[in-house]
Design goal:
The chain has about 180 residues and is of the alpha+beta class. Helix content is about 40%, strand content about 10%.
């Protein structure tokens, strides 16, 4: 698919883009489904990814998180990508805060309730519309790159079980 160029194409792209309900439960934002069963993978790759998801730090070592954070940096934290959903099965686009790169903003982006008219895109001039398309397009490409990094890593590595000793401090009762 090529990037939308005309006003009509840009409006269609933004209007038809998949959306997901955000944490606050009142609004939606642009989303990208990352559920393993929805990625169109072969059964072998799907199994490799499912096994890799059982490793706590797999998103970090696979490069998945680095790709997502590069988006945040590229957009100076004004746009951020977060995971949403009960099982973290969606990547979602949020407005960020340049001054506060660690804050999670749960407001929706371009949610229908934010606009009083059905054709709210008519309120956007062509430059604002193009800027929004650029951000959402970059979001889609970044999500696809993060998923590709995770899938490639999952198929190039295998998950093995190891027994490890864990030393931990516990509280016990002693006589005074």
């Amino acid at each position: 698919m090529r990037k939308p160029r005309t006003r009509k194409e840009m409006v269609e792209y933004l209007t038809e883009h998949p959306r997901h309900l955000v944490e606050n439960g009142y609004s939606t934002t642009y989303s990208y489904c990352i559920k393993v069963d929805h990625l169109g993978l072969t059964s072998e790759r799907r199994q490799a990814c499912a096994e890799m998801l059982e490793v706590e730090y797999a998103h970090e070592v696979s490069g998945f998180l680095a790709v997502l954070r590069s988006f945040d940096v590229r957009h100076h934290y004004e746009w951020r990508i977060y995971t949403e959903g009960r099982s973290g099965g969606y990547l979602v686009l949020h407005r960020g805060h340049r001054d506060e790169p660690c804050l999670h903003n749960t407001s929706g982006v371009d949610h229908a309730s934010q606009f009083p008219t059905l054709n709210h895109w008519s309120d956007f001039d062509v430059y604002d519309l193009k800027a929004r398309v650029d951000a959402v397009w970059d979001f889609d490409e970044t999500c696809a790159a993060a998923v590709a990094a995770f899938v490639q890593f999952s198929t190039a590595h295998k998950v093995v079980e190891q027994k490890v000793r864990v030393t931990k401090t516990v509280k016990v009762i002693e006589e005074r």
